[in-house]
Specification:
Blueprint: H1 2-8, E1 18-24, E2 27-34, H2 41-45, H3 53-62, E3 76-84, E4 107-111, E5 114-116, E6 122-124, E7 128-136, H4 139-152, E8 158-159, H5 166-169
Antiparallel strand pairs: 1-2, 3-7, 3-8, 4-7, 5-6
Length: about 170
């Protein structure tokens, strides 16, 4: 309906259209639209894309037929947000963050609300501080990997949800 509405209004939209959705008792409801990739959703999707995304994005921007149907890696991925305690309300900034010396190859830590001091110390600077992702052959293994990395990243008043992925695992 959204794309049909844009077309009916004479809008030739090309590019990324992100819809923030919520599943309710009355069905799916749109909360917001963004003309950018969603965060942290993109952090979990991009590592799963097996193809070069640039030709696909360029073709989309030019209104051309897509050069290929995207192929995805086998397995599962998950991302867990490490937030500052108090977020989305008030929260303290400037807390030093410590990271593990090495990360598993199939995991990543994406900075969101961080800053780096002149001496190289990384500190909290926003509510959503880091996104920690894990990729694995199964969802269970991806969840375990991501939470393992989350538990190795330390900062004062760190908050994270401990239920990410569990609804799907408990089906």
């Amino acid at each position: 309906p959204t794309l049909a509405g844009l077309k009916a209004d004479g809008i030739d939209y090309r590019g990324t259209l992100y819809a923030g959705l919520m599943l309710t008792n009355k069905g799916v409801k749109v909360l917001e639209y963004n003309v950018r990739f969603g965060d942290p959703e993109t952090q979990v999707l991009l590592p799963m894309v097996a193809d070069d995304l640039v030709p696909v994005l360029l073709a989309s921007a030019k209104g051309e037929a897509l050069p290929t149907q995207l192929q995805f890696h086998e397995g599962a991925a998950i991302v867990i947000v490490l937030a500052a305690g108090g977020y989305p309300g008030s929260y303290a900034k400037g807390k030093e963050i410590s990271f593990p010396d090495t990360l598993p190859a199939s995991s990543a830590v994406v900075h969101a609300g961080t800053t780096r001091d002149a001496d190289g110390t990384i500190r909290t600077a926003g509510g959503r501080v880091l996104g920690v992702s894990g990729q694995a052959p199964t969802l269970q293994a991806a969840v375990e990997l991501a939470y393992s990395v989350c538990d190795q990243v330390e900062f004062e008043d760190k908050y994270l949800r401990r239920d990410i992925g569990h609804r799907e695992l408990n089906r």
